[in-house]
Automatic annotation (TrEMBL):
All residue ranges annotated as the SKP1 component POZ domain in the record: 7-70
Pfam families to which the protein is assigned, alphabetical: Skp1_POZ
Protein name: SKP1 component POZ domain-containing protein
Classification via PANTHER family: SKP1
Residues that span the membrane, as ranges: none
Key words of the record: Ubl conjugation pathway
Gene3D superfamilies: Potassium Channel Kv1.1, Chain A (3.30.710.10)
Organism the protein comes from: Caenorhabditis remanei
InterPro entries: SKP1, SKP1-like, SKP1/BTB/POZ_sf, Skp1_comp_POZ
Family statement: Belongs to the SKP1 family.
UniProt record, GO biological process: ubiquitin-dependent protein catabolic process
Length: 155
């Protein structure tokens, strides 16, 4: 029988997720909240911990990540790279924002590599359009070159 504590967290769209203490400990923000509540207001731990800046869809990804981190050894498995590869651009952006909000070092660390992998696979033109860099088309149909405008202020 497992006596590990289970906590509830509630997202901005009122979805409630259960996380055990080991999963909670992967988030600096959540573990500090739990520690503070246990010390000062243990009765409040019966209610879900509010996560106002993370929606349910993204929190579901965070819960899965914490679970896989707990049950599988990242040093001997490629699960984290495989997990991140299947995320859409919007999911990855939300996942990174949640990791930043909840301060989850393992997600922050691994998503840097996934972002680099995605950028390396892009063409220069696609990178320019994603970063909204203005460009001009060459007459020979070549790749867009950034247009740099320098303005001087008179004294």
């Amino acid at each position: 029988m497992n006596s590990e504590k289970v906590y509830k967290v509630e997202t901005s769209d009122k979805q409630v997720f259960e996380m055990n203490s080991e999963d909670i400990s992967q988030s600096i923000t959540l573990s500090e909240q739990v520690d503070d509540l246990e010390d000062r207001h243990p009765h409040l731990l019966l209610q879900p911990i509010q996560i106002p800046n993370v929606n349910g869809e993204i929190m579901q990804l965070v819960v899965k990540w914490c679970y896989f981190s707990r049950v599988d050894c990242p040093n001997t498995s490629r699960w984290c790279a495989d997990f991140l590869k299947i995320l859409t651009k919007n999911e990855l952006n939300g996942f990174i924002s949640a990791a930043d909000e909840l301060i989850i070092p393992s997600i922050i660390h691994e998503t840097k590599y996934e972002m680099m992998r995605r950028v390396e696979s892009m063409t220069p033109g696609l990178i320019q359009s994603c970063l909204e860099i203005p460009g001009t088309s060459g007459s020979n149909g070549g790749p867009n070159k950034p247009k740099i405008v320098v303005k001087y202020r008179r004294k």
